[in-house]
Queue: 3 jobs
Job 1
Amino acid sequence: MNSINPRWLAAVFLVAVACETATRLWLASRQITAVQAHRDDVPEPFRAQIGLADQQKAADYTIARARLGRWATIFEAAIKVLLTVGGGIAAVDALLRRVGLPEPWQGALVVLTVLLLMQLIGLPFALWRTFGVEARFGFNRVSPRLFAVDLLKRLLLALLLGGPLLLATLALMERAGTWWWVWVWVVWQGATIALMWAAPRFIAPLFNRFSPLTDEALKRRVETLLERCGYTARGGVYVMDGSRRSAHGNAYFTGIGRSRRIVFFDTLLERIEGGEIEAVLAHELGHFRLRHIRQRLLLSMLATFGGLALLAWVARQPGFYSALGVPVPSPAIALLLFMVTVPVFTFFATPLESWWSRRQERAADAYAAQHSDAGNLAGALVKLYRDNAATLTPDRFHSAFYDSHPPALERIAHLSALRSEFEPQR
């Protein structure tokens, strides 16, 4: 295979950054226009449950987030260019070489420093989002102190968990020969599975409190549904104090094996009734029973395998480094450049990923309708749309790119059809 032409790669990268940025800005503008056009008109299927004030709040909230997203998009594009062809990564590498650590410690120091700088550079947008947009619309419950503590915990976890993995990766890149990337893939998959097991027991409790479900009536309803669906919640059913940080509500599955558990936000349980909670849980069970979680994990493993194979090839190309502003190649620099550049190109596969996710959500809705009540699930979703200020009228192109769930109108119509299909069978 021919080596990389530095001028060609630099030009392609800059064009890709420009196209990604332009597409993101175009989609945000379409979203703002679509939501603004329906700000004062509640879609007919929702008029009985959602008032005009709720519709207007959802529109204003969506527009505020989109406008913040546009500034973040421009800023992120500038950072990508400055770090690569602008020589940012090369400057950090040259500065830290004075420390004179042996490899892979020196490479790990460079990678961690650049990643920390990227986190700190993006911090103003996180603050703006939390204490500006989320607070203005009544969703934020995070104090500045808690925000700082959370940030510190995340950075320490990244260092304690990611540091050893980074050292192992760099050591294998340097010493394991041509097929180092296969060994790295094996190590990464082992680490992923270990984290999936450990997250509910040891990591999530660092940020939130998890209490066993104590509502006996709801607990019996949940246990009956689990038995009906043939599911064993080995780790139990828990309530998380989501209200400590946000007014948004949600529910999710987490963990593997005996650490597997079902988690409800306390904000969700405050808003929806027993039958609706059962329907939401049935939807989440659908993802498990239909093997969606396993499919996503397998796809992630395959994508990682392919990505590492590509990294192994470009890391051997001198033109890869010189095209992206780095005069001195190294495993750490190859890893950093790859992490910064690849998302620019994979962005254009986002619609395919979102389409697959929406397809799985429809299948999980059908499972919920079969094992619970589609009307209850629709009722719970409408309450969540209202209370989370989710727009009911997204732009179709923006939705096709970014939405992991079907748009509200489409989803409720689908549940109405499922209700008509399954209710006569009961």
Job 2
Amino acid sequence: MLDELKSIEKDGLATLEKVASEADLQAWRTKHLGRNSAVMQAFKNLGALGKDERPAAGQAANQVKVALEGALAKRETALKAGRVAQSLETEQVDVTLPGRRVPLGRLHPVTQTMREIRRIFAEMGFQVYRSRDVETDVYNFQLLNFPPNHPAREMQDSFYVEGGSDENPLLLRTHTSPGQIHAMREAVARDPDNPSPVRIILPGMCYRYEQITARSEIQFTQVEGLAVGKRITFGDLKGTLSDFARRFFNPDVRTRFRASHFPFTEPSAEMDVECFVCGGEGCPVCKQTGWLEILGSGMVHPNVLRNGGYDPEVYSGFAFGMGPERLTMLRYRIEDIRYFWRNDLRFLEQF
């Protein structure tokens, strides 16, 4: 068997020297190192040898296999180098062609909407006010005129966290409205006798313990607005928000206000814009109504003003809240809010 193995190695190496293409190389691999090759058959025939012959024959067969595999690897490298050299000699490079554009990252669509909202209100004189994500029950509910039995105070709507007390637990804020109290109290603290007017927007993340659907998420962004001063009226609220809609959507958009109810505003209203898909005629996007609801608003409730340190007999104000995700969905006709959180580049690269 030893002489046979030497012959197998010699024949394989000699044949390999003549291989000049990938196809021939693959054929050589199958013939000389494949399952039915001569060297693999030698391994199978070791059992028929005597105990004295078997170790030497097995070692020789393994040496032949290693030698053939090493020669195959060298031949593959040589063929590859030959192809590269040939391509450099025969192929031409057009140095005048433009280079490939490097793909750049881009802002998340909700971030783009948030920045546009901030820009519009900055032009109106509103400043950005940041407030905390973890709030106390007092700031998140009580000071905003939520009665103790209000549904939003129940566990199924709020994420409560460790800390606080039984009377005043901690929770992830369910809206950015607690920032109103912080901002008003800071203004009053600077000058208790004559507190300065407040004109701010409060962008941030909110959290609600509810079922995730195509229209709702457990976390979402919100932009709250607050203006407090002397002689502020509902007309100021309507003018501010109507101007925002014209700047955000288009200069000719129509708006309307519908009566609503929020614990921290009185009177309260929801604002609609004319459906920009059908022009108000009715379509599936606006559910055949011709209108799209974009935000809630109202005059700041006297109790909230008082909790913020302002005398409701002297001062008044308006507040509003909008969801950048909803505005983005309406503007681009996105049907599922969950797309914003999946980090799917096929979706994100469209913006």
Job 3
Amino acid sequence: MNTHHSIVPVILCGGSGSRLWPLSRKSLPKQFAPLVGDGNLFELTLQRISEGHFNKPLIVASEAHRFHVLKQAANLGMQCEVLLEPAGRNTAPAIIMAALHLKANGHDGHMLVLPSDHLIPDHIGFSEAINAGMTASQNSKLVTFGISPTGPETGYGYIQTENSSGAVLDVCAFHEKPAVAKAEQMLAEGGYFWNAGIFLVSVDRLLALAELHQPEMLAAVEDAIADMTRDDSFLRPDAEKWKLVPAESIDYAIIEKCDDIACVPFSGSWSDLGDWNSVFAVDGADKNGNRLRGGVTAVDCVNTNLWSTNDQTRLVGLGLDGIVAVATDDAIMVANASRTQDVREIVAVLDKAGVPQAHQHTKDYRPWGWFESLIVAPGYQVKRLHVDPRARLSLQSHQHRSEHWVVVAGTATVLINEREKQVNTNESVYINVGDKHRLANDTDQPLVVIEVQTGSYLGEDDIVRYHDDFSRGLGEL
């Protein structure tokens, strides 16, 4: 029997995915990045929980990615509420906040906590596993989901169970990422499963566990959301009070302290796409063990993974063995395949050196579409703006720069100081410093504009907003 109707999926979107740099960065982390096919992992997660008659999902996301969440949910015809974390405090406070919000709004059923960045193609097997877990959860157990291991993987945590087979197993212990020898031993013994980071629990049970094991954290989260504000689908706790919430993962804070946990084994295809090796493993290798994506060429290479995400950049490998190379618009990473778990160290080094590529893509996403910087030089900057159909930028002015817009695709509706005009392809318009102006796309086709900025200061915070469809404040990006 399908019992999903009493479950609220709680989807965690706060991760940065730094091991997948340079494609995944803070400005567009891996759950929103184009890692698999034409979609992204967040969209696939939404699709997975849209097929089982679940309740409306509750998303926990950062302020910076709130419009990604709403836009992609809308693209799938889904409604959702979004809890916005003022700052990352790891998973335990986020999940406790979700449980408190559900309880306050009359939901005393179950919550299915899901990472937003895992790949689980087997939707039927996933649904069956949730149904198996509901029986145990209805008996007040906290239910985890363990992946049947296919090898001695050292990049995952492990769940140890009392038996090696069965629909629902009792959990004995949790183990951190093991060394190779320990992983091989676990595999040989049986009864060990990879920890998928997915769990099912009743709202009341989760809050009772939080009160038992993390009373200070629970009180701090309650204090932060006492005066929660709502902005359409967005819910915001108090930012200053949220800073006082202790940061801890749900595993350490609560789950590993419980003595009544069940594990539902899942033998379907699953990957957390936690490093570049796991991303490339989604594709089949050629006869030389190479996996190639995008505009790449491999000559006399073996066991090598190459990916170029930029059609204008050809990535060529010659005589390589055991190498991972990824090229984007503004960065190229070359690594030994045995070191892909350490890629986040690259990000730390770049961040310390003040290199913008550490966290920021050239393409900057906005609720109305996106822009990318083509040329940045003292006194001027050239951008390409992509405005989605039926979307418009805020009514705004700039104190330090003028702008020249050239429409290269579509038709723009431009408002300058209360005068509105249509600007067609191959036409342009000029905006002086201080002019109140707005760019809109009133058509059903994308609008592409080349913007030339000139002035003494060209920072993105030089924006005075007078009206905005997305309720962004003064200077907010």
